[in-house]
Design goal:
This protein is an alpha/beta fold and 555 residues long. The chain is 50% helix and 12% strand. The protein is built from 21 helices and 15 strands. The chain has a 9-stranded mixed beta sheet, with helices on both faces. Strand 10 (348-353), helix 16 and strand 11 form a beta-alpha-beta unit. The longest helix has 41 residues, at 514-554.
């Protein structure tokens, strides 16, 4: 039988199996490794080959700023970190590896905070963890109220506190530069119990506002700077946008802010690897909820919280219920700091990595940052979320060095933000003396005077006396003199009784608010002048008419 006949009797599948059996197993193993490597390279978004092709120089730092921004030309232009390149640690050349390594290891410096418990106005409690410049010099570690040493306030990210590795990197770096640093932990974090019926969220700026005002009041001579990270950056930018010029913060930095929570929510559920992050974050939020179960089970949907598999699930069953948002999307829209960027009046550095696995670059407000002269936006091709490891040993975070360099340059310049004093000359005098009292229309000519509680009581008493007199007149208890002189006297007394409270009120205004009285006098003169002119014309009309008619008769 010929070979052609044998071949013709076999199917194509059988021929392929026989050919495959002739290939050594080692070749299959190598092929499998190659395929898995390619898939893993793309799944983990590795960029080590790109770094090698660029000669291990790293990616360029791109800056976005207003062309006439003095903050860039006089402050950021002096920062070498912002005008160089960022090269990630070679064995962490992936946003996922960087983010994972930061969360598990992080290699933070070793030091000990000094804790201060601060009670908020609504009864909530937050932990303020301090690291003073003197703590690293073995000094007494006491900051005086007259000290002009710059003060840095750090706002951590979601479920993070002062012990987070990236927070300790920043705190230690700034303290080594001679700054006093305090970490404002969120409610219920840092080992502190919840002491009120409210939890922190991405939209809640009252805590940072109260902490900043408290520290400014306690250390008025110390220039205050703020750094927010992740959700803390969103809260910080939103607070600065809400306050505008009216904030004691001299400078700020936003690190890996989510900017638009609705866009980030869509992004984090788009791919498999992002969905893994969503589950990991939900697991951390459930752990946070378990710490405060007695309160959360009373205020929110506890069964829904336990079943949460994403941040959105947790916000649906906890945040929206406690903070009274109609929907999760409503909460995300109202919480997003991108809407407040245009109103930020404080010099601010914003840092974001384009490969951030949690906060997508699609949410960055590029145009808003470019339009604001106070903002410099720095983006890098790589870095992950809050990681930015650099060096072979991965002991440094690039953004920490860039932030400290920017803040120090700002502190040494004349471009620090200074809170404008409010105008208390006219506005506050009117507010304090008039707006807080009810208005009464005393006369028919439009003169309006403020009535305090005492004046109102006196008017009520006079009115009651008048009613009593009228009742007595009707009952015959008082004889009424028909003479015109007595009637005129009663009218004069009534006018005097009506005007007396106004005189007393005006005398009080004269003692306390002189400017308001002059303003009221001017308004009363202008508004009552037509009435006074008409009254004068009626009174003197006959006097002018009689001499004129007498002259005509004499002629």
């Amino acid at each position: 039988m010929s070979a052609a006949a044998v071949t013709g009797g076999e199917s194509a599948g059988e021929l392929l199996r026989r050919a495959a059996a002739l290939v050594p197993a080692e070749h299959y193993a190598l092929a499998a490794i190659a395929v898995l490597s390619v898939l893993g390279y793309h799944f983990l978004e590795l960029h080590v080959l790109g770094d090698l092709l660029r000669g291990l120089r790293g990616g360029r730092v791109d800056l976005v700023f207003h062309p006439s921004s003095e903050i860039y030309h006089c402050v950021a232009s002096k920062c070498r970190s912002l005008h160089g390149r960022y090269l990630a640690t070679p064995w962490l050349a992936s946003p996922h590896l960087q983010t994972l390594f930061l969360g598990i290891f992080g290699r933070p410096p070793s030091f000990t905070y000094k804790r201060q418990l601060y009670t908020l106005r609504d009864g909530g409690t937050v932990a303020l963890d301090w690291l003073l410049a003197s703590d690293l010099e073995d000094a007494d570690g006491i900051i005086s109220q007259d000290a002009s040493t710059p003060l840095l306030v750090v706002v951590p990210g979601l479920t993070s506190d002062s012990d987070a590795a990236y927070v300790k990197h920043l705190v230690h770096s700034m303290a080594r530069k001679g700054w006093n640093v305090v970490v404002g932990n969120h409610r219920g974090l840092g080992g502190v119990s919840i002491t009120s019926d409210f939890f922190y969220n991405a939209a809640w700026t009252e805590d940072i506002r109260e902490i900043v005002n408290y520290l400014h009041h306690k250390f008025p001579e110390a220039p205050m700077f703020c750094v927010g990270t992740s959700i803390g950056a969103n809260v910080l930018v939103k607070y600065l946008g809400e306050e505008g010029e009216n904030t004691p913060v001299a400078g700020a930095a936003s690190i890996c802010s989510p900017w638009d929570l609705l866009v980030d929510d869509r992004f984090i559920s788009r791919k498999l690897v992002q969905r893994l992050y969503a589950k990991a974050l939900a697991f951390g939020l459930i752990g946070y909820a378990n710490l405060h179960q007695p309160i959360l089970s009373r205020l929110a949907n506890w069964e829904g919280i336990k079943k949460s598999r994403s941040i959105r699930d947790f916000d649906l069953h906890a945040t929206c219920i406690i903070s009274k948002y109609e929907t999760v999307d409503t909460y995300y829209r109202q919480s997003s700091s991108a809407s407040y960027v245009g109103n930020v009046s404080v010099p601010m550095l914003c840092v974001n990595a384009l490969d951030d696995p949690l906060c997508t670059a699609e949410a960055i407000p590029w145009d808003e940052c470019r339009a604001n002269k106070n903002i410099v936006l720095a983006t890098t091709p790589n870095g992950g979320h809050l990681a930015f490891f650099e060096g072979l040993t991965a002991r440094r975070l690039w953004w920490v060095g860039a932030t400290s360099e920017f803040l120090c340059a700002l502190h040494d310049s004349s471009y620090m933000h200074r809170q404008k004093a409010e105008d208390h000359v006219l506005h506050s005098s009117l507010e304090s003396s008039i707006d807080k009292s009810p208005y009464i229309n005393v006369l028919g000519d439009g003169l309006v005077a403020p009535a305090t509680d005492d004046v109102v009581n006196e008017l009520k008493l006079n009115k009651e006396n008048e009613h009593a007199k009228e009742a007595e007149k009707k009952s015959g208890g008082i004889e009424v003199d028909a003479g015109s002189s007595k009637q005129q006297g009663e009218k004069d007394n009534m006018i005097h009784d009506a005007i007396a409270p106004v005189k007393r009120s005006i005398s009080r205004l004269t003692r306390y608010q002189g400017r308001s009285v002059w303003l009221l006098a001017y308004i009363s003169f202008v508004t009552s002048w037509p009435l006074l002119g008409s009254l004068a014309f009626i009174v003197f009309r006959k006097k002018f008419r009689n001499p004129f008619s007498a002259k005509q008769q004499s002629k």
